Amino acid sequence: MPGWQRWRPKKRRKAGAMADLLSRVHKVSQDALASGALEPIPTCQEVVEEQGVEFLLRVLDNLSRKDEARDKLKRAGAHRTDPFLPYDPALYVEEVAPRHRCLLNKFNVVQHHVLIVTREFEPQTDLLDAGDFQALVHCMAQMPGLGFFNGGEMAGASQPHKHLQLIPLPMAPFDVLPFSASIAEVPVGGPQCCPALLFRHGLIRFPSSPSKETKENAQVMLRAYLTLRTYLDLGEADPYNLLVTDEWMMLVPRSQEKWQGISFNALAFCGAMLVRDGEQASLLKKEGLMQALAAVT
């Protein structure tokens, strides 16, 4: 039996059991908002349907704040291009074994968006390993959500320091995620493709059964990740996006970062598209959101 078939997703714990990380994220977010260290970027959003598949299309209300912050660092002549070394202590959540720490995403579009960052510098282009998945599983067990990874600049990675990301679920107004209904129609097992999703990808749906220990779950996730890389014939240096929930894992090879000037990261491949302005939103709706995703994979 392939290792990924022995996946045993943790049952979602009751609020009291999850309070550890969740309460910490909430508290740090409140303090960081008050101090100005956390700078959420507001968006307008709409649900767009294409041939029975729903997308969440977000349009940024104010991207200038993020651009201005980056320009300020450049003007200050900051040689430090790594925002995680040192990190902003106002964004610090907690240490995560074996070699990671959890930080708030400073310019977040989704509330309580966290980064799972290696404590020492490791390249974002390095393959994920058991320690990376152990850190992700630990955080997902306490804050159920969507974990994702942008493997390289062409896959939408904005920082060269290795970091996974986690956003809480559900993603309103959906019960879980925009593509969840389509993925749920795929039988458990894999690796395989979801017929409704026309971009290149590999998918493994995990069987549901009682929970296991974090380290064991991390090893199962690692095996699923390696299985998908083989299934897609992905080379070690090839860019890709990874998306993980407690029910499935998806790997998306990337051929380019942008379509018509619109950049996509991993969240686009769960159906959550983000654009800078109304002009880009109109272009996507005219040409087709799924077609745009297919063009970059």
What does the model show?
The chain is 29% helix and 24% strand. The model is unreliable at 7-18 and 75-79 (pLDDT under 50). Helix 3 crosses helix 5 (214-231). With 297 residues, it is of the alpha+beta class. It has 7 helices and 14 strands. The chain has one domain: HIT family, subunit A (2-Layer Sandwich). The strands form 3 sheets. Strands 3-4-5-7-6-10-11-9-8 form a 9-stranded antiparallel sheet. It has a 3-stranded mixed sheet with strand order 1-2-14. Strand 1 (43-50) and strand 2 (53-60) form a beta hairpin. The longest helix is centred in the first third of the chain and has 21 residues, at 15-35.
List keywords for this structure.
alpha+beta, nine-stranded antiparallel β-sheet, three-stranded mixed β-sheet
Arithmetic mean of pLDDT: 89
* Proper CATH architecture: 2-Layer Sandwich
User: In the CATH hierarchy, what is the class?
Assistant: Alpha Beta
The coarse silhouette is globular
Number of strands: 14
Largest sheet: 9 strands, antiparallel
The name of the CATH superfamily reads ATP adenylyltransferase
Q: What's the order of the H and E elements?
A: HEEHEEEHEEHEEHEEEEEHH
Q: Work out the helicity level.
A: 25-40%
